[in-house]
Write a structure and sequence with these properties.
Layout (H helix, E strand, L loop, with lengths): L3 E7 L4 E10 L2 E11 L1 H4 L7 H23 L8 E7 L3 H18 L3 E5 H13 L5 E6 L4 E8 L2 E7 L5 H11 L6 H9 L24 H18 L4 H33 L5 E5 L6 H14 L2 E3 L3 H4 L4 H12 L34
Parallel strand pairs: 1-4, 4-5, 6-9, 9-10
Antiparallel strand pairs: 1-2, 2-3, 6-7, 7-8
Helix pairs in contact: 2-3, 4-11, 5-6, 5-7, 5-8, 6-8, 7-8, 8-9
The chain binds 5'-O-[(R)-(carboxyoxy)(hydroxy)phosphoryl]adenosine (KG4) and zinc ion.
Protein backbone atom coordinates (compact mmCIF):
# COMPACT_ATOMS: atom_id res chain seq x y z
CA UNK A 1 0.00 0.00 0.00
CA UNK A 2 1.30 3.48 -0.85
CA UNK A 3 1.92 5.88 2.06
CA UNK A 4 -1.22 7.71 3.09
CA UNK A 5 -1.28 11.08 4.85
CA UNK A 6 -4.58 12.27 6.31
CA UNK A 7 -5.88 15.35 8.06
CA UNK A 8 -8.21 14.41 10.93
CA UNK A 9 -10.84 16.70 12.43
CA UNK A 10 -12.65 16.16 15.76
CA UNK A 11 -15.37 18.33 17.32
CA UNK A 12 -17.95 15.97 18.80
CA UNK A 13 -17.90 17.26 22.37
CA UNK A 14 -15.86 19.98 24.04
CA UNK A 15 -12.45 19.61 22.39
CA UNK A 16 -11.69 21.14 19.00
CA UNK A 17 -8.94 19.07 17.41
CA UNK A 18 -7.00 18.65 14.17
CA UNK A 19 -4.13 16.28 13.42
CA UNK A 20 -1.99 14.89 10.63
CA UNK A 21 -1.25 11.16 10.56
CA UNK A 22 0.82 9.23 8.03
CA UNK A 23 0.65 5.48 7.49
CA UNK A 24 3.66 4.14 5.66
CA UNK A 25 4.74 0.52 5.39
CA UNK A 26 2.18 -0.48 8.02
CA UNK A 27 3.62 1.99 10.54
CA UNK A 28 1.53 4.95 11.66
CA UNK A 29 3.12 8.24 12.63
CA UNK A 30 1.39 11.18 14.30
CA UNK A 31 2.94 14.18 12.49
CA UNK A 32 0.94 16.64 14.59
CA UNK A 33 -1.99 16.66 17.00
CA UNK A 34 -3.58 19.93 18.07
CA UNK A 35 -6.31 19.99 20.75
CA UNK A 36 -8.04 23.19 21.85
CA UNK A 37 -10.16 22.49 24.94
CA UNK A 38 -13.21 24.49 26.00
CA UNK A 39 -13.19 23.81 29.76
CA UNK A 40 -13.10 27.50 30.69
CA UNK A 41 -16.05 28.36 28.41
CA UNK A 42 -18.33 25.80 30.06
CA UNK A 43 -17.04 26.12 33.65
CA UNK A 44 -19.67 28.67 34.80
CA UNK A 45 -22.45 26.25 33.78
CA UNK A 46 -21.13 23.11 35.49
CA UNK A 47 -21.30 21.04 32.29
CA UNK A 48 -20.91 21.24 28.52
CA UNK A 49 -23.43 23.63 26.91
CA UNK A 50 -24.04 22.28 23.36
CA UNK A 51 -24.70 25.66 21.71
CA UNK A 52 -21.61 27.25 23.24
CA UNK A 53 -19.56 24.20 22.21
CA UNK A 54 -20.79 24.31 18.59
CA UNK A 55 -20.01 28.02 18.21
CA UNK A 56 -16.57 27.62 19.74
CA UNK A 57 -15.80 24.70 17.40
CA UNK A 58 -16.85 26.78 14.37
CA UNK A 59 -14.53 29.57 15.49
CA UNK A 60 -11.55 27.37 16.37
CA UNK A 61 -11.54 24.67 13.67
CA UNK A 62 -9.76 26.66 10.95
CA UNK A 63 -7.01 27.69 13.36
CA UNK A 64 -6.54 24.14 14.63
CA UNK A 65 -6.24 22.82 11.05
CA UNK A 66 -3.72 25.54 10.14
CA UNK A 67 -1.71 24.77 13.26
CA UNK A 68 -1.77 21.01 12.60
CA UNK A 69 -0.51 21.51 9.03
CA UNK A 70 2.19 23.94 10.16
CA UNK A 71 3.36 21.65 12.96
CA UNK A 72 3.56 18.73 10.54
CA UNK A 73 5.42 20.98 8.10
CA UNK A 74 3.15 20.15 5.16
CA UNK A 75 0.55 21.88 2.99
CA UNK A 76 -2.88 20.67 1.84
CA UNK A 77 -1.26 19.32 -1.34
CA UNK A 78 0.65 16.71 0.63
CA UNK A 79 -2.58 15.20 1.93
CA UNK A 80 -4.29 12.10 0.56
CA UNK A 81 -7.59 12.70 2.32
CA UNK A 82 -9.61 14.37 5.05
CA UNK A 83 -11.19 12.36 7.87
CA UNK A 84 -13.79 13.86 10.17
CA UNK A 85 -15.85 12.70 13.14
CA UNK A 86 -19.37 12.34 11.72
CA UNK A 87 -20.86 11.12 15.04
CA UNK A 88 -21.82 10.20 17.68
CA UNK A 89 -21.73 13.42 19.65
CA UNK A 90 -23.34 16.79 20.25
CA UNK A 91 -24.91 17.47 16.90
CA UNK A 92 -23.95 21.16 16.54
CA UNK A 93 -20.29 20.39 17.14
CA UNK A 94 -20.27 17.38 14.81
CA UNK A 95 -21.88 19.55 12.11
CA UNK A 96 -19.21 22.24 12.54
CA UNK A 97 -16.49 19.65 11.97
CA UNK A 98 -18.22 18.01 9.02
CA UNK A 99 -18.78 21.40 7.32
CA UNK A 100 -15.14 22.36 7.84
CA UNK A 101 -13.94 19.01 6.46
CA UNK A 102 -16.24 19.28 3.44
CA UNK A 103 -14.92 22.75 2.67
CA UNK A 104 -11.29 21.59 2.80
CA UNK A 105 -11.98 18.39 0.82
CA UNK A 106 -13.93 20.24 -1.88
CA UNK A 107 -11.44 23.10 -2.08
CA UNK A 108 -8.34 20.90 -2.23
CA UNK A 109 -9.94 18.12 -4.32
CA UNK A 110 -9.38 15.50 -1.62
CA UNK A 111 -11.43 12.44 -0.66
CA UNK A 112 -13.59 12.90 2.43
CA UNK A 113 -14.03 10.08 4.96
CA UNK A 114 -16.58 10.22 7.80
CA UNK A 115 -15.41 8.45 10.97
CA UNK A 116 -17.27 7.11 13.99
CA UNK A 117 -15.74 8.79 17.07
CA UNK A 118 -15.91 5.51 18.99
CA UNK A 119 -14.01 3.73 16.21
CA UNK A 120 -11.34 6.40 16.64
CA UNK A 121 -10.95 5.48 20.32
CA UNK A 122 -11.23 1.75 19.59
CA UNK A 123 -8.42 1.78 16.99
CA UNK A 124 -6.06 3.97 19.07
CA UNK A 125 -4.11 1.02 20.59
CA UNK A 126 -3.10 0.18 17.03
CA UNK A 127 -1.98 3.70 16.31
CA UNK A 128 0.04 4.03 19.52
CA UNK A 129 1.26 0.49 20.21
CA UNK A 130 0.89 -1.29 16.88
CA UNK A 131 -1.51 -3.74 18.57
CA UNK A 132 -2.81 -6.12 15.90
CA UNK A 133 -6.37 -7.40 15.55
CA UNK A 134 -8.19 -8.89 17.35
CA UNK A 135 -8.16 -7.40 20.85
CA UNK A 136 -10.55 -6.61 23.67
CA UNK A 137 -11.10 -2.93 24.33
CA UNK A 138 -12.54 -1.21 27.38
CA UNK A 139 -13.69 2.24 26.32
CA UNK A 140 -14.21 4.41 29.41
CA UNK A 141 -14.89 8.11 29.00
CA UNK A 142 -17.25 10.90 30.02
CA UNK A 143 -20.04 9.59 27.82
CA UNK A 144 -19.26 5.95 27.14
CA UNK A 145 -18.37 2.73 28.85
CA UNK A 146 -18.32 -0.47 26.86
CA UNK A 147 -16.39 -3.65 26.17
CA UNK A 148 -15.70 -4.14 22.47
CA UNK A 149 -14.09 -6.99 20.64
CA UNK A 150 -12.16 -5.21 17.89
CA UNK A 151 -11.61 -7.55 14.94
CA UNK A 152 -10.95 -5.03 12.19
CA UNK A 153 -11.24 -1.32 11.34
CA UNK A 154 -14.98 -1.75 10.86
CA UNK A 155 -15.64 -4.93 12.78
CA UNK A 156 -16.68 -4.41 16.41
CA UNK A 157 -18.77 -6.54 18.78
CA UNK A 158 -20.02 -5.05 22.03
CA UNK A 159 -20.13 -7.61 24.81
CA UNK A 160 -21.19 -5.30 27.63
CA UNK A 161 -21.48 -1.73 28.78
CA UNK A 162 -23.06 0.72 31.18
CA UNK A 163 -26.82 0.72 31.45
CA UNK A 164 -26.89 4.31 32.73
CA UNK A 165 -24.06 6.78 33.43
CA UNK A 166 -20.50 6.52 32.13
CA UNK A 167 -17.73 6.46 34.78
CA UNK A 168 -16.32 9.83 33.65
CA UNK A 169 -19.73 11.36 34.14
CA UNK A 170 -19.87 9.86 37.64
CA UNK A 171 -16.41 11.31 38.42
CA UNK A 172 -17.54 14.71 37.12
CA UNK A 173 -20.73 14.65 39.21
CA UNK A 174 -18.82 13.54 42.28
CA UNK A 175 -16.48 16.51 41.88
CA UNK A 176 -19.43 18.84 41.44
CA UNK A 177 -21.17 17.53 44.58
CA UNK A 178 -17.96 17.97 46.58
CA UNK A 179 -17.11 21.42 45.21
CA UNK A 180 -14.05 20.23 43.30
CA UNK A 181 -13.05 21.68 39.89
CA UNK A 182 -14.02 20.16 36.52
CA UNK A 183 -13.12 17.91 34.80
CA UNK A 184 -13.91 15.84 37.86
CA UNK A 185 -11.76 12.79 37.16
CA UNK A 186 -8.35 14.31 37.86
CA UNK A 187 -9.70 16.31 40.87
CA UNK A 188 -11.28 13.25 42.49
CA UNK A 189 -8.18 11.14 41.81
CA UNK A 190 -5.98 13.76 43.47
CA UNK A 191 -8.21 14.05 46.56
CA UNK A 192 -8.52 10.27 46.84
CA UNK A 193 -4.77 10.00 47.47
CA UNK A 194 -5.28 11.44 50.97
CA UNK A 195 -8.44 9.48 51.72
CA UNK A 196 -9.35 6.16 53.31
CA UNK A 197 -11.27 4.04 50.76
CA UNK A 198 -12.95 2.09 53.60
CA UNK A 199 -14.15 5.05 55.67
CA UNK A 200 -17.46 5.20 53.77
CA UNK A 201 -19.03 2.19 52.14
CA UNK A 202 -20.11 2.55 48.51
CA UNK A 203 -22.14 -0.08 46.62
CA UNK A 204 -20.61 -2.17 43.82
CA UNK A 205 -23.55 -2.08 41.39
CA UNK A 206 -24.38 -5.12 39.21
CA UNK A 207 -21.51 -7.24 40.53
CA UNK A 208 -24.10 -9.68 41.81
CA UNK A 209 -25.43 -10.18 38.29
CA UNK A 210 -23.72 -12.26 35.63
CA UNK A 211 -22.36 -10.67 32.47
CA UNK A 212 -20.35 -7.56 31.63
CA UNK A 213 -22.97 -4.81 31.94
CA UNK A 214 -22.29 -2.04 34.44
CA UNK A 215 -24.14 0.72 36.29
CA UNK A 216 -22.68 3.87 37.82
CA UNK A 217 -25.67 6.12 38.54
CA UNK A 218 -26.24 4.58 41.99
CA UNK A 219 -22.75 5.65 43.07
CA UNK A 220 -23.60 9.30 42.70
CA UNK A 221 -26.75 8.87 44.85
CA UNK A 222 -24.66 7.03 47.44
CA UNK A 223 -22.12 9.86 47.35
CA UNK A 224 -24.81 12.51 47.82
CA UNK A 225 -26.19 10.68 50.88
CA UNK A 226 -22.75 10.11 52.39
CA UNK A 227 -21.83 13.77 51.82
CA UNK A 228 -25.03 14.98 53.51
CA UNK A 229 -24.43 12.61 56.42
CA UNK A 230 -20.86 13.89 56.81
CA UNK A 231 -22.05 17.50 56.69
CA UNK A 232 -24.80 16.84 59.24
CA UNK A 233 -22.36 15.14 61.60
CA UNK A 234 -19.68 17.85 61.56
CA UNK A 235 -21.68 20.91 60.49
CA UNK A 236 -19.64 21.04 57.27
CA UNK A 237 -17.44 18.95 55.02
CA UNK A 238 -13.92 18.56 56.40
CA UNK A 239 -10.98 18.06 54.05
CA UNK A 240 -10.50 14.55 55.41
CA UNK A 241 -14.18 13.67 54.93
CA UNK A 242 -13.99 14.91 51.34
CA UNK A 243 -10.86 12.88 50.66
CA UNK A 244 -12.48 9.78 52.21
CA UNK A 245 -15.54 10.21 49.98
CA UNK A 246 -13.33 10.51 46.89
CA UNK A 247 -11.29 7.46 47.88
CA UNK A 248 -14.42 5.38 48.61
CA UNK A 249 -16.06 6.38 45.36
CA UNK A 250 -12.94 5.68 43.28
CA UNK A 251 -12.44 2.30 44.96
CA UNK A 252 -16.01 1.32 44.02
CA UNK A 253 -15.43 2.32 40.36
CA UNK A 254 -12.13 0.39 40.37
CA UNK A 255 -13.77 -2.75 41.79
CA UNK A 256 -16.61 -2.68 39.26
CA UNK A 257 -14.33 -2.05 36.26
CA UNK A 258 -11.84 -4.69 37.42
CA UNK A 259 -14.41 -7.43 38.00
CA UNK A 260 -16.31 -6.72 34.78
CA UNK A 261 -13.04 -6.57 32.82
CA UNK A 262 -12.08 -9.94 34.29
CA UNK A 263 -15.35 -11.39 33.03
CA UNK A 264 -15.09 -9.69 29.63
CA UNK A 265 -11.56 -10.98 29.22
CA UNK A 266 -12.64 -14.51 30.12
CA UNK A 267 -15.47 -14.31 27.57
CA UNK A 268 -13.11 -12.90 24.95
CA UNK A 269 -10.40 -15.49 25.59
CA UNK A 270 -12.93 -18.31 25.24
CA UNK A 271 -13.61 -17.00 21.72
CA UNK A 272 -10.06 -15.95 20.81
CA UNK A 273 -7.48 -17.76 22.92
CA UNK A 274 -4.36 -16.87 20.89
CA UNK A 275 -2.24 -13.88 22.01
CA UNK A 276 -4.94 -12.28 24.19
CA UNK A 277 -4.78 -8.55 24.74
CA UNK A 278 -6.91 -6.00 26.53
CA UNK A 279 -6.56 -2.30 25.76
CA UNK A 280 -8.15 0.76 27.36
CA UNK A 281 -9.16 4.04 25.77
CA UNK A 282 -11.10 7.15 26.79
CA UNK A 283 -10.40 9.85 29.36
CA UNK A 284 -11.05 7.70 32.45
CA UNK A 285 -8.20 5.41 31.34
CA UNK A 286 -5.97 8.24 32.60
CA UNK A 287 -6.81 7.28 36.19
CA UNK A 288 -3.77 5.61 37.74
CA UNK A 289 -5.73 3.52 40.25
CA UNK A 290 -7.99 2.19 37.48
CA UNK A 291 -5.05 1.51 35.15
CA UNK A 292 -3.23 -0.41 37.85
CA UNK A 293 -6.25 -2.59 38.61
CA UNK A 294 -6.81 -3.36 34.91
CA UNK A 295 -3.16 -4.19 34.49
CA UNK A 296 -3.49 -6.70 37.37
CA UNK A 297 -6.57 -8.25 35.78
CA UNK A 298 -4.75 -8.64 32.45
CA UNK A 299 -1.66 -10.08 34.19
CA UNK A 300 -3.69 -12.63 36.15
CA UNK A 301 -5.34 -13.81 32.93
CA UNK A 302 -2.04 -13.95 31.03
CA UNK A 303 -3.14 -11.22 28.62
CA UNK A 304 -1.19 -8.26 27.28
CA UNK A 305 -2.31 -4.87 28.65
CA UNK A 306 -2.14 -1.78 26.45
CA UNK A 307 -2.89 1.74 27.67
CA UNK A 308 -2.17 4.46 25.08
CA UNK A 309 -0.44 7.65 26.25
CA UNK A 310 -2.84 10.04 27.90
CA UNK A 311 -2.98 12.67 25.15
CA UNK A 312 -4.20 9.98 22.74
CA UNK A 313 -6.56 8.39 25.31
CA UNK A 314 -8.65 11.54 25.64
CA UNK A 315 -10.42 13.17 22.69
CA UNK A 316 -8.05 14.05 19.85
CA UNK A 317 -7.98 14.15 16.06
CA UNK A 318 -5.02 11.81 15.46
CA UNK A 319 -7.30 8.87 16.25
CA UNK A 320 -9.81 10.21 13.72
CA UNK A 321 -7.17 10.63 11.00
CA UNK A 322 -5.90 7.10 11.69
CA UNK A 323 -9.42 5.56 11.63
CA UNK A 324 -10.08 7.53 8.42
CA UNK A 325 -6.96 6.09 6.76
CA UNK A 326 -8.07 2.58 7.72
CA UNK A 327 -11.54 3.16 6.32
CA UNK A 328 -10.13 4.70 3.14
CA UNK A 329 -7.78 1.74 2.70
CA UNK A 330 -10.85 -0.50 2.75
CA UNK A 331 -12.23 1.52 -0.19
CA UNK A 332 -14.60 3.70 1.80
CA UNK A 333 -15.05 7.33 0.66
CA UNK A 334 -17.94 9.66 1.59
CA UNK A 335 -19.21 12.34 -0.75
CA UNK A 336 -20.51 15.81 -0.01
CA UNK A 337 -23.71 14.16 1.22
CA UNK A 338 -21.93 13.02 4.41
CA UNK A 339 -24.25 13.76 7.33
CA UNK A 340 -23.71 14.34 11.05
CA UNK A 341 -25.12 11.62 13.30
CA UNK A 342 -25.86 12.33 16.98
CA UNK A 343 -26.22 8.56 17.63
CA UNK A 344 -24.11 5.99 15.86
CA UNK A 345 -23.52 2.68 17.66
CA UNK A 346 -20.36 0.82 16.64
CA UNK A 347 -22.11 -2.51 16.86
CA UNK A 348 -25.57 -2.31 15.28
CA UNK A 349 -26.34 -5.89 16.25
CA UNK A 350 -25.91 -5.41 20.02
CA UNK A 351 -29.09 -4.41 21.90
CA UNK A 352 -29.36 -0.67 22.59
CA UNK A 353 -28.19 0.37 26.04
CA UNK A 354 -30.52 2.37 28.27
CA UNK A 355 -28.65 5.56 29.06
CA UNK A 356 -26.29 7.44 26.87
CA UNK A 357 -24.75 10.05 29.13
CA UNK A 358 -26.34 13.26 30.31
CA UNK A 359 -23.71 15.32 28.54
CA UNK A 360 -24.74 13.87 25.19
CA UNK A 361 -23.32 10.89 23.39
CA UNK A 362 -19.69 11.56 24.10
CA UNK A 363 -17.07 8.90 23.91
O1 LIG B 1 -12.42 10.73 26.46
P1 LIG B 1 -12.64 12.08 27.09
O2 LIG B 1 -11.55 13.12 26.96
O3 LIG B 1 -13.91 12.77 26.56
C1 LIG B 1 -15.06 12.09 26.32
O4 LIG B 1 -15.79 11.81 27.31
O5 LIG B 1 -15.26 11.75 25.13
O6 LIG B 1 -12.96 11.80 28.65
C2 LIG B 1 -13.28 12.85 29.53
C3 LIG B 1 -13.72 12.22 30.83
C4 LIG B 1 -14.20 13.22 31.86
O7 LIG B 1 -15.42 12.77 32.41
C5 LIG B 1 -13.09 13.23 32.90
O8 LIG B 1 -13.53 13.53 34.21
C6 LIG B 1 -12.56 11.82 32.79
O9 LIG B 1 -12.60 11.52 31.43
N1 LIG B 1 -11.20 11.73 33.32
C7 LIG B 1 -10.86 11.00 34.41
C8 LIG B 1 -9.48 11.26 34.64
N2 LIG B 1 -9.03 12.12 33.67
C9 LIG B 1 -10.10 12.39 32.87
N3 LIG B 1 -11.59 10.18 35.19
C10 LIG B 1 -10.95 9.60 36.22
N4 LIG B 1 -9.66 9.80 36.52
C11 LIG B 1 -8.88 10.62 35.77
N5 LIG B 1 -7.62 10.84 36.07
ZN1 LIG C 1 -14.16 10.50 23.14
Amino acid sequence: MRPLTFLGIESSCDDTAAAIVRLEGGVAQVLSSVVAGQTALHAPFGGVVPEIAARAHAEKLDHCVEEALAEAGIGLRALDGVAVTAGPGLIGGVMSGVMCAKGIAAGAGLPLVGVNHLAGHALTPQLTDGLSFPYLLLLVSGGHCQFLIVRGPEDFSRIGGTIDDAPGEAFDKTAKLLGLPQPGGPSVEREALAGDPNAVHFPRPLLDRPGCDMSFSGLKTALLRARDAAVAERGGLTRQARADLCAGFQAAVCDVLAEKSRRALREYMALTPAQPAIAVAGGVAANRAIRARLEDVAGAAGARFVAPPLRLCTDNAAMIAFAGIQRFALGHVDGMALGARPRWPLDDTAPAMLGSGKKGAKA
